[in-house]
């Protein structure tokens, strides 16, 4: 299981990072193809158990692989992706995911910001403001509206939480969309 999640670039035989990432995603796609939700759920539970056994939490390759795995699930079947997110945000499975999980799935029009926010709002968990800010940061321009702006302002008013913000200019989409 650990070898399956380990990135290909971690192996000296791989020279090109882009190719190794592509190969790993193809490996994930092949693994998921034809799987039922119960099989995917069991895999995620097994990964959760592996993560609990990991003594050195400084290793970060699992979080990137799991983010890619979640994105592959999203492309395979949206409902399976929603189920996996519910497992994650309910605390049934606990490991690190990167913000790419939302940026890619919204950019590829697999799931909307509204749907992601509905999932987040069904659960109470540490980091909820961070994940809400992630949705609002990566929201496609076409989905920006007054409600999303209000949520963004509420997120910024929470002084006790971490926020997802790589580039403040990304928030200009709220201004331009609401003026038009």
How do the strands and helices of this protein lay out in sequence?
Blueprint (H helix, E strand, L loop, with lengths): L1 H4 L11 H16 L4 H17 L7 H16 L1 H13 L9 H8 L5 H9 L6 H11 L7 H12 L14 H8 L1
What does this structure look like?
With 180 residues, the protein is an all-alpha fold. The protein is built from 10 helices and no strands. It has helices at residues 2-5, 17-32, 37-53, 61-76, 78-90, 100-107, 113-121, 128-138, 146-157, 172-179. The protein is globular. The mean pLDDT is 85.
β-strand number:
0
Uncertain regions spanning at least 5 consecutive residues: none
End-to-end separation: 50 Å
User: Into which percent range does the helicity of residues fall?
Assistant: 55-70%
- Total helical elements: 10
Query: What does the average pLDDT come to?
Result: 85
Output the structural class: mainly alpha
Q: From the structure provided, what is the oligomeric state, counting identical versus distinct chains?
A: single chain
- Strand proportion, as a percent range, falls in under 5%
Characterize the largest beta sheet: strand count, sense, and whether it forms a barrel: none
Shape label: globular
Radius of gyration: 17 Å
Helix-strand sequence: HHHHHHHHHH
């Amino acid at each position: 299981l650990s070898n399956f999640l380990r990135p290909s670039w971690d192996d000296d035989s791989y020279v090109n990072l882009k190719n190794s990432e592509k190969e790993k995603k193809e490996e994930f796609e092949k693994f998921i193809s034809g799987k039922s939700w119960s099989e995917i759920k069991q895999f995620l539970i097994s990964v959760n158990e592996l993560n609990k056994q990991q003594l050195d939490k400084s290793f970060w390759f699992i979080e990137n692989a799991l983010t890619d795995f979640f994105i592959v699930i999203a492309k395979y079947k949206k409902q399976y992706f929603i189920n996996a997110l519910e497992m994650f945000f309910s605390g049934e499975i606990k490991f690190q995911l990167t913000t790419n999980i939302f940026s890619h799935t919204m950019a590829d029009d697999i799931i909307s910001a509204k749907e992601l926010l509905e999932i987040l709002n069904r659960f109470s968990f540490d980091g909820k403001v961070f994940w809400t800010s992630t949705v609002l940061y990566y929201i496609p321009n076409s989905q920006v509206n007054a409600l999303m702006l209000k949520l963004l302002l509420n997120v910024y008013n929470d002084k006790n939480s971490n926020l997802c913000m790589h580039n403040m200019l990304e928030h200009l989409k709220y201004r331009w969309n609401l003026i038009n």
